[in-house]
Amino acid sequence: MKYSIFFLLFPLLTSCMNLPETSFLEFCYFHPASTGTDPYYIPDDLDIPYIKIIAPFDNDFIDENYPFLVGAWNIHRLEFYDNDSLVKSIIVSDTYNEYTLILDSRIETHYLEFRGFDEHNDLIASSSIKINVMPGIDLSRGMIVGDMWISYYYIGEEARFRGEKDIFITDMQCIPLAEVNWDFLAELCMEGSGRLNDGSILNYGSRCKCGFPCPWGGNICYVELDKVKYPWGAGSRKKSLVPLRTLAVDNNVIPHGTIVYIEEWDGVAIPDIGGIGNFIHDGCFRADDIGGWIKNDHFDFFSGTKEMWLYFEKIIPTKKRMTVRIDAGRCSYLKND
Fold first, then answer.
1. Mean pLDDT, residues 92-110 taken together
2. pTM for the full model?
C-alpha cells in the first residue's frame, strides 16, 4: 500500500502530573492526493519506504507551540517515540486524522523518532531528531465559571450632545463640577464615567442628597479624576478602565481583579474605530469594575466608545451567552497591568 502523508504536530508540553486542557500535542496527518493539498516538495514518485522530519531541524531550540512537519512514503503503520518511549501508533489511511499526545515538559531535551512498518510489522523506515524545548508558557484556558451573557458600556462624551446646558453635576461635597446638557447627564449616569469638552474626566462617586436625580434612579454625585491616570474613567477600587480589556462583573461570581478568558473573543478582529482597536483580540480580560445592574451570570464589556459598542452589536450582540473562565495561564500577562 503506497501513501504519501504529512504530519502536523503542535506540541503543548506539560507535566504529566498536572494536565490543563491545553497541555497536549495535536497530531494530524492527511493524504495530499485526497485533499488536494500541495505536497510541499515531497516527490510523488518515490517508491521506497521513507520518513523525513522536514521541520524543525535537528538540535533546534523551539517553543511549546512550534509546528512539526513530517513526511512519510510507502508506510503501512507509523509509531511515534519520545525519548525511546512509544507515544502513539497509527495505521496510515487516505483520510484526514487528528490525534492527541502528551509530552512531559519537565524534560528539556526530547529525542523524537518516527518508525515506519509494513503490513507484516517489519520496520522498514525511520527518522529521528533531537529538540530542545525552551522554558514553557502556560497556555491553559483556566477554570470555567459558567455560561454568562454579555452587555457593553463606554465612556460618555459631552461632545456628542448639543443643546442648552442647564444641569449642574456636583461632587460629594455638593460643589458644582460642570454645567451640562440633560442628555449627557443621562448617559453619564448610565455609563458611570464621562469626558467633558475640556477633556476633564468625571466618574461615579456615590449616591448623595445634593446630586441631580439620575434618569435611571437615585441622586448621584461625581468625582473629577486625574485625566492622565484615568483617561477612560475608573472602575471599582480606583482601577483605571482599559478599553477592550476591562469587564464589570458581580464580585460574588468573579472576584475583583481576576483575570478572565472568554474563548468566543479569542481571534476576533477589532477594527480601528476612533483611535482604539486595530488588533486581534486574544480573549483576555480583567474584572476591574462592577455595576448596579451587573448581577449573577451577567458581565459588562468596556468597549471604550459608543462607536465601538455599535460595531460590537453587529458581531457579538448584547445578551449573547458565552463561556467565561478565570485564571487562564495564557492571560497571565494582565496580572501586573
1. 63
2. 0.61
